[in-house]
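Long-time lurker. I teach an intro course on protein structure, and each term I like to show students one example going from raw sequence to a predicted 3D structure in token notation. This year I'd like something fresh instead of my usual example. Would anyone be willing to generate the tokens for the chain below so I can use it in lecture? Attribution to the forum is fine with me.
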Amino acid sequence: VSEQPNKDVVEQMEKCIQEKDEKLKTVEELLETGLIQVATKEEELNAIRTENSSLTKEVQDLKAKQNDQVSFASLVEELKKVIHEKDGKIKSVEELLEAELLKVANKEKTVQDLKQEIKALKEEIGNVQLEKAQQIESSGKSSPEELTSKPRI
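-- Reply from a regular --
Happy to contribute to a lecture. Here you go:
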């Protein structure tokens, strides 16, 4: 009879071991599932990190382009300002040139007028000399001195 209680105890212990084995198996399965989930989450995390790194680089590239565009825009503005200033200077020089051209044209006209006046005076002198020569001939005086002398004006 004393073997019976030992047998019951052994059966209980075996049953307890079997339950513990099943629990252990369940925990191992849960752990394996958890590890798979962790590995999956780690892959997702790595994919997100890679995407984040790409996006960060893209943002830096865009910022650099934006800075270049700002620099380019300010350069364009500066060039427009310089061109505007140069246009103003060119206009001033053109106005001065036109004024000088007018002065030259006026001087040329004055020179032409003087040339005509000189021509008219030469004709007048020629006429006066002719008259004088005629007077000398008609009066009978024909000294070479009188023929060559020119009247003063």
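Some talking points for your students: DSSP finds two helices and no strands in the chain. Helices lie at 3-139, 144-148.
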